[in-house]
Amino acid sequence: MRVKINYRYIASLAASLAVALLIGAVILMVSGFNPVEAYSALLSGAFSNARHIGDVLEYAMVLCLCGVACNIGSRVGIFNVGGEGQLLLGAIVSAQIGVVLNGLTPWVVIPVAALGAALTGGLYALLPGWLKVKHNVNEVITTIMLNNIAEFVCEFLAKGPWKNPDNNIVAGTGNLPTEYWFTRLATGSNLTTVFFVATIMTVLTWYIMQKTATGYEMRLTGDNPRFARFAGIKTDKLVIIGMLVSGMLCGLAGMFRVYGAEHIYKASISNDYYFEALTVAMIAKYQIPATAVISVIFAVLKIGAQGMETAAGVPNQIYLIIQTVVIFCMAAESGIFDGLKRRAEDKAAKAAARLREKEGAAHD
Amino acid sequence: MIEILAQVFSAGTFTQMLRSATPVALAAMGGSMTEHAGIMNIGMDGMILMGALIGVLGSYMFGSAAAGVMAAVLFGILVGLFFALFVVKLRSDEFIIGCALNVFANGFTAYVSRSVFGFSGTSGYEIDYMQPIDIPVIGDIPFIGEILSGNTALVYITWILVLVMWAFVYRTPRGFYIRAAGEKPETLRTAGISPERMKWLASILCGMLCGLSGAYLSLGYLNGTFVEGMSASRGFIAFACVIFAAANPAKAYLAALMFGFFDAIGLRLQNYISSDLTSAIPYAITIIMMVYVVVSKERRRRSGRAAAKTSAAPPAEGAGT
Amino acid sequence: MPNTPETVIQLSHITKEFPGVLANDDVSLEIHRGEVFALVGENGAGKSTLMNIIYGIYPPTDGEVFVRGKKMEEYSPKNAIANGIGMVHQHFMLVPSFTVAQNIVMSREPRRAGIFFDNRRAEEITRELVKEYGLAVDPSARVEDISVGVQQRVEILKALYRGADILILDEPTAVLTPQETDELFAVIRRIISEKHMTVILITHKLGEVMAISDRVGIMRHGRLVSLAETKNITEREIASEMVGRPVLFDELERTGTPGDVMISVEDLHVRDNRGLTAVNGVSLEARSGEVVGIAAIEGNGQSELLEAITGMRECVSGSVRIHGTEAVGMTPGQIRALGLAHVPDDRLATGVDAVADVADNLITGRQHSKEFKGFAGHLRRSTIERWASEVYQRFDIRGAGLHGAVGSMSGGNMQKVVVAREFSYDTPALVISNPSRGIDIGATEFIHEAIMEKRNNGCAILLSSADLDEIFRLSDRIITMYEGEITGHFKAGEITKEEIGYYMTGSRRKEADKVDAS
Known about the structure:
The complex is a heterotrimer of chains A (about 375), B (about 325) and C (about 525).
Chain A: H1 7-30, H2 35-47, H3 50-75, H4 83-100, H5 106-135, H6 139-159, H7 194-211, H8 213-223, H9 225-230, H10 235-262, H11 273-283, H12 288-312, H13 318-363
Chain B: H1 2-8, H2 11-36, H3 44-62, H4 65-89, H5 94-117, E1 132-133, H6 144-148, E2 151-152, H7 153-171, H8 173-183, H9 185-190, H10 195-221, H11 234-244, H12 249-268, H13 275-310
Antiparallel strand pairs in B: 1-2
Helix pairs in contact in B: 2-7, 2-8, 2-10, 2-11, 2-12, 3-4, 3-5, 3-10, 3-11, 4-10, 7-8, 8-10, 11-12, 11-13, 12-13
Chain C: E1 7-18, E2 21-32, E3 36-41, H1 47-54, E4 62-67, E5 70-71, H2 77-82, E6 85-88, H3 100-105, E7 111-112, E8 116-117, H4 119-133, H5 148-161, E9 166-170, H6 178-195, E10 198-203, H7 206-212, E11 215-220, E12 223-229, H8 235-243, E13 261-271, E14 277-287, E15 291-295, H9 302-309, E16 315-322, E17 325-326, H10 332-337, E18 340-343, H11 347-351, H12 358-363, H13 381-394, H14 411-424, E19 429-433, H15 441-456, E20 460-465, H16 468-474, E21 477-482, E22 485-491, H17 497-504
Parallel strand pairs in C: 3-10, 3-11, 6-9, 9-10, 15-20, 15-21, 18-19, 19-20
Antiparallel strand pairs in C: 1-2, 1-4, 4-5, 7-8, 11-12, 13-14, 13-16, 16-17, 21-22
Helix pairs in contact in C: 14-15
């Protein structure tokens, strides 16, 4: 087996993170905070106790799951930007299943809810996938539009037909009975046993995409669909299935949020989490191990920033700034590297030409 | 039923349509520039959001809405430069940069707004905003006058800009270069013109127009308020308009009007139907229109094919490449 | 020509290095006013690189360019244009959605009121140019709607409008019909005699060199190896200088007799990407143990025909049978399963996954074989490695190694990867399109021998090539196509290269008679 560790990539990631933290420090100073204090508050906000660590892992899980969903799509050459909508629909459907089936044993309710979430998310992703394959309609635009539609539909359901009148929030389904809640791994934390399920799903996806014949076909389809079709691979089917599975993972991520963390569907189920995951997947260059690592890093920043807000009064949105600086750096990485490389190569070529000339003169 | 129709087709609906369409149209015109230059710009939502904040900030600091608009436009230029630095100079993936710009705008505007105005936002602050302008004579015409008159300056400026941008793209040499930069950049390079420069120019124009769009949103549409996330996906709607209009600024304005119309009837019909559902209509329509465009193109090809079967159509010109 | 020719361009010790490639190696050369200078060499010999340096696309790594005695200080197309140099690139530099006039005046537009593009004036200018140089174009036609030959005229007019008096033409005849080539040469002669211009012609067609040039420079591996007056050199001499050894394509050995019909096409109609008829009622067949060559000038439907046969393109009507089974409506994968392999026209777009490594490109199509697929669907990497390295050696692939990206290989080696994979399926029928396009003579020879070996082992081969020598060398039967229709049907040896040109241009037709009922 070939194991390739991309040291340049790791170095770039570390450098980007350093640059981002530096810029963050400058912004903190400009707005009158002590960066050292703020960052130590951030660290303790992420690591000081099991609850915080649990929250970090829970958020990393959501990011990673969504990132993996994006990776599956991009592997077959379709870009699923619609994960946010798939996640929201999966969440609200699973929440409502829990409310409707209240009273049944969790051994029935949870599988049914998971199935419902996966199917809702998957079917919602199927539409743009089908349009892409059948009519070559740009999936980026359709999925973005479907996101907005899903948001409004969920809002409508949570305010109207599926609203629980006993709740005193404007939009939200009924609360889940406690016996349906996933078991917490640390008191007070959102981290639950479903973390292990998500881990297994991630590893399984990695195995399929990286090691199997199907993964091989997916890769060819994404790299050069014309060649893949030419070589007899059923590219349309792979794209459709890829989109379906991608949507299913997003739907499940929504269900995990409901049954693991919120125990109700409300607007805070996701705050553009999928878009964050999308950037994670992109700077991970659509590789699953890197997606997992960067998910953890971003989760540390986010959860830590919440602690920082309570401890030091810094608006927690600073984490979005730091995070996007990392993304900008990583996106520019190859441009910067290539520029440096080209300059060095030009120099070397010129020197070599001079040398040859000299040698030539000596031979004459 | 008649009552509903009367509500839908009242002058108020069309006034609201204009108001809703304006920010989308401004951004869509900007997006048309980048689209022509061959850049897929999905970062417009972030550009608008930042424009909205800077507009309010400028108006707050200088005490004048006009200054706020200026500030938003200038900041838009900076954002355009920033965008081009990554997309053109450093050859980053425009999609990542667009996404990141949106996330960045979310964080940046919330951070700045909370730092300046505190955690409860701009409410309670005295911020100058754009006043409606009554047009004499035209304003007195019933119905039409009601719609055309009494809008803020930016609505009228947008009309002028539609003409200007259209003429720029299709009637000036620079416009030709921008289109060539997107369609076939080597053509420019061999003519001694830098296609990269055209992409920079397009990005800057897009930044400016999105800044203007944001300023309208906060200083015109919402009377001098900044709300976190107030762009509310308008950048994506604008993007849909661009695609829909094949990056023609005039057609993009018409597309924006259509979105404005659905937005307006959604607000009008709140008592009959959930506004959440009517709000979703423009997005659904974009998808339907995209599918329609593609399918009708396919059908046109297929009907040509049917003709070939019956008649001996002249064979293809000798251009295989 | 005067006794002391005036030098318009002088290249002094030009060296150009790209990462890993020495494209130009110490080239010194003088171009004289009023001559047609032909620059010849194989693909990759460095001709285009040298000309791109003159045109300022990129600077040389070392050495200098002098234009009319003045040293070129800044390498940019802008500067080159200012110095009166114009270049017509192999791939035209025209914006498809703009009109002819708009393309011609680009960068020096006539303006109205100082800011607006004056379209009327642009069309007038174009008409004036047309009158002056006798190159007919319609100023208001969109470039995407005009033929390649006319596009080339637009390119030449564009250079002339910019004030060029030194014109570089990069492989100008590659996409032209013989008639269009004649027209182009007439234009070249005219601008030289009437306008005293200078023309540099990059080409690898030796007949053209002899027909039009005054002097010829021959490049090999980035070096200028020979420089001669055309009248003092023969085609054969040029050819052997180009390759660095005497070219002797040996007669290939043929054994066996044709057997069953493996590929049979009947009254096939196919459309091109624009929805226009590309193949118009073609019928043909190929038997096992024979090579059927399709001779046609690029863009006459041969690519679409082969794509339709292999399932890469939808058919409008007609029938394609592979070993007796109807294949119309099947996917490329299903057609492969019937026993048809395919070496495609454009290897980079269709033949490989350029990002993946060589091994992964070699095993495509075998990923589900028992040999390679193990427990839980995983690919047995070590088995694959062994198999791929064996193929790698058998087909003499060089360059990237088994784990290098195919995209980083030379055209010849990339083509060998495609051929190795397609031939390794051992199918009874093969469709091959332009197998030696853009690759060096060594690789061409290797691939030709491999094709012949397949034929002798009883494979039915349908070959299409823009290279007539290739068609004549390999084919047992030759079919000519023009504008989507078959215009002639010949046995090998029945027709000469000169004669076949009439059929490829539609000026003669021969009904498909009993030649194939042998």
